[in-house]
Specification:
The complex is a heterodimer of chains A (105) and B (401). Chain A is mainly alpha-helical. Helix content of chain A is 51%, strand content 0%. Chain A contains five helices and no strands. In chain B, strand 5 and strand 6 form a beta hairpin. The chains are: A mainly alpha (105), B mainly beta (401).
Chain lengths: 105, 401
């Protein structure tokens, strides 16, 4: 809560004079996403949240295990995220358990 | 339409034969998710918008903004690909470099751009290729946008061709690579670079430093971005820092893997059998969106309602917008604005009527462009794995009391 108030305050100050947007650093607010804690979350934190917010994950909706596996693979293959095989398995399990639709495929 | 039905049937038959009925799932297309709530957290220079992610920032414009031809800067959608966006760029020291196969390398300051080149303006729609992606079932990977990953602005800047002329292209120049200043967390991650073929570039392509008479908002690419009217926004590189001219196409993730659709007539495929060959999304298709009313509007059956919205395509120009208030049985022509903002801009439309009954009322709009292309019904749009180029007939259901 205090976080949000601080951010809104900063935004107001930044937005007031016209054309002054780069007279100082902009601050992209931090959005606290609701995270489901559980086995494997530390791997998510270490391997996923380096590059993107948790919102990026939950926005996909509830998905199959195959879907999540493919997303993790995409991060490794295309975005070159250095995720070890074992961590990739744990992350996939976590995603499927908490944001899964119950289907393997 | 028939073709699509064939594909659907073919997928069902093939699926049933090989995989058993459990994994049967033909791709379908429905109305995108509508009217997600705006977030209480406002981003720099923005009003509260629909927030998907803070890092990288992903913000969507709510539907009710789409009643006017120009989208206000503080409500304009935001889409970045990488987590690390510079948080400060000094306009006094910023330069754009032009290098590669040129006779003279250039480093142009913002001030030189504004004073030493002809200044031009173009009003053009900026739309993400994945706008409305939430229409596709099963989920197509990517941000599950509603209809608001788009906007239209008056862009001011300098023609790309004037800059290339000043640098002087060498004879073997063929490709122009553009990169922005956003950075990935890992060095190995591909940079966000776009390459355009020289012959794809016309005089409407500009490097813009102003949007709707103000500096570009930071999150929309301050201080300079590429404007390619008629094309989807994946090519409109933000925070443009470098232009490199080459004679050879470099393989790039954001051009060779992302932002591509099946390279067949319908641009469709099934989740089980993805089409092997793909092509870039490039030009926008014809589309209209209702800005008023929205699903939250309550109408009185005795009073008149003016439906308003916007329509656009890739620059052929909008010919008509048709409106139906009887589930698509009959269609009537809406009034279009004068079109004075040009062929790449939103064309606003309006349509007045008095609701006759009570209860739920569905309003549908269908745009047709000058070469006769029209919006299909959502269900007739073939599924594609990237969830690109949705342009279904728009629908808003309101309550009449």
């Amino acid at each position: 809560m205090t976080n949000i108030q601080k951010i809104i305050l900063t935004t107001t100050v930044l937005a007031s004079p016209l054309f002054s947007q780069v007279s100082e650093k902009i601050e992209v607010p931090y959005v606290p996403y609701q995270v489901k804690m559980g086995k494997g979350f530390d791997e998510v934190q270490a391997n996923c949240l380096m590059c993107h917010s948790f919102g990026y994950i939950t926005n996909q909706g509830k998905q199959s295990k195959k879907f999540w596996r493919e997303k993790v693979d995409k991060m490794i293959v295309h975005f070159k995220a250095p995720i070890a095989k074992k961590s990739a398995d744990i992350v996939t399990e976590y995603l499927f358990e908490h944001y899964g639709n119950g289907k393997e495929q | 339409m028939e073709r699509r039905d064939f594909f659907k049937k073919a997928a069902v038959v093939a699926g049933a034969a090989t995989l058993g009925s459990n994994s049967l799932e033909a791709g379908i297309t429905k109305q995108p998710v509508d009217n997600r709530k705006v977030s209480p957290v406002a981003f720099p220079e923005k009003r509260p918008l629909i927030v998907y992610s803070d890092r990288p920032p992903l913000l969507e414009t709510p539907r009710d903004v789409f009643t006017s031809a120009l989208t206000p800067n503080d409500q304009f959608f935001v889409r970045w690909h990488m987590p690390d966006i510079p948080t400060y760029i000094d306009p006094d020291t910023f330069t754009i470099s032009v290098n590669g196969l040129v006779k003279k390398e250039l480093n142009i300051s913002l001030n030189d751009l504004k004073t030493k080149f002809e200044q031009v303006e173009v009003t053009a729609v900026l739309q993400c290729g994945g706008n409305s992606r939430s229409a596709f079932v099963p989920t197509a990977g990517g941000i599950q946008w509603g209809n608001g990953a788009m906007g239209c602005a008056k862009w001011k800047g300098v023609r790309l061709s004037d800059i290339l002329d000043q640098a002087g292209l060498t004879k073997d120049a063929q490709w122009i690579g553009f990169n922005g200043s956003e950075k990935a967390a890992y060095y190995e991650t591909p940079n966000f670079i776009r390459e355009l073929k020289l012959d794809e570039l016309n005089d409407s392509v500009i490097l813009a430093y102003q949007m709707n008479d103000e500096d570009l908002p930071y999150l929309n690419g301050y201080p300079l971005r590429l404007i390619i009217p008629g094309s989807y926004s994946d090519s409109w590189v933000k925070m443009l820092s470098n232009i490199t001219v080459t004679n050879q196409y470099k393989k790039l993730f954001f051009m060779d893997v992302a932002y591509r659709v099946p390279d067949n007539e319908t641009e469709g495929e099934t989740p089980e059998k993805k089409f092997p060959k793909t092509k870039p999304i490039t030009k926008m298709n014809v589309k209209s969106i209702i800005g008023y009313p929205t699903s939250e509007t309550i109408l009185n059956h005795k009073s008149e309602v003016v439906v308003r919205g916007v329509a656009w395509d890739d620059g052929h120009g909008i010919n008509k917008v048709l409106v139906s208030i009887d589930e698509g049985k009959t269609w009537e022509e809406a009034l279009l604005d004068s079109g004075e903002l040009g062929r790449y801009a939103y064309r606003t439309f309006r349509f007045s009527f008095k609701p006759k009954g009570y209860g739920k009322l569905k309003i549908m709009t269908k745009a047709i462009n000058t070469i006769g292309e029209m919006q299909p019904l959502a269900k007739d749009i073939p599924w594609n794995h990237g969830g690109y180029k949705y342009n279904g007939i728009d629908e808003v259901t309101v309550e009449v009391i």
